[in-house]
Amino acid sequence: MHFCIPSFLPTIFVPLVFLLTAFAFPIASCASCPVPGIRANGEYFRSEAVFVGTVVSIRKKPDTDRDIGVWFYQLQIERIFRGQAQDKLQVYTEDSDIRFPLEKNRKYLLFAYRRRGRLEIDSCGNSALLSDAADSLGRLEKLARAESPTEIEGWVVAETSGIDVSGVRVSIRGRSKVYCATTDKEGWFQFQVPPGRYKTDFTSRGYYLNGGDEFWYDPEHFVVHAGECASLQFVSVRHRLK
User: Fold this and answer.
1) Exposed, middle or buried by CB within 10 Å (0-12, 13-18, 19+), for 221?
2) How far apart are CA 183 and CA 200, in angstroms?
3) By the 8 A CB rule, do 79 and 51 touch?
4) Cβ burial, residue 156 (10 Å; 0-12/13-18/19+)
5) SS3 (DSSP) at 152
6) Could you tell me which CATH number the domain at 151-236 has?
7) Which helix (H) or strand (E) covers residue 134, if one does?
8) pLDDT tens string 147-179
9) Domain residue spans in the chain?
10) Pairing mode of beta strands 151-157, 229-236
11) Counting C-beta atoms within 10 Å of the first and last residue's C-beta, which end of the chain has fewer, N or C?
12) In the beta sheet, which residues pair with residue 188?
């Protein structure tokens, strides 16, 4: 969590604004989501619990001088894809930029993470109303039946709009083999691999990592489990011709 300082404020006022905000308001959470988007059969392996449940009660913990507000939700569990079998679960979401508020008596597919000893949900991944979760449910069903392919997919994005990101050759190294793919017109690539450890080969100098991004999978070192879909993102070195 960190303070959100408006970019238009003169630099000389930033320390003063920071101090005044710290004493006047609770700590604000300006969290952002990892990149790129992640498939349900990727987020499954990063979650503590994945389940379908109906919200039966809601409790709000208000803001204080020290902490931001939190919503707690008690859910009646219908199905658990990952985690300990139980009839009820409690999850929470913080009052932050990535909060995922739930409504009482509605049914959800949720991906929860163990944070500070509790199960937290957010809006970064595939948590959704059950009625909107057909693709995610399909992927989880195939994963449960051991029918899901093991894949690496990703995107090469442009630094600025209007840059051609097609035809970029991406190389991913496994322990005994190098897997290569060429991006389509949207900068997207995908290929199947055996489970194992992988890392991206940057020797072509055709793409790089944005140091300001947080990644679901660290492209420089990541593991892919059987049935998992690992999602990567790079930035193209191509520039607009002047």
Assistant:
1) exposed
2) 15
3) yes
4) buried
5) strand
6) 2.60.40.180
7) helix 134-144
8) 999 999 999 999 888 999 999 999 999 988 999
9) 40-144, 151-236
10) parallel
11) C
12) 155
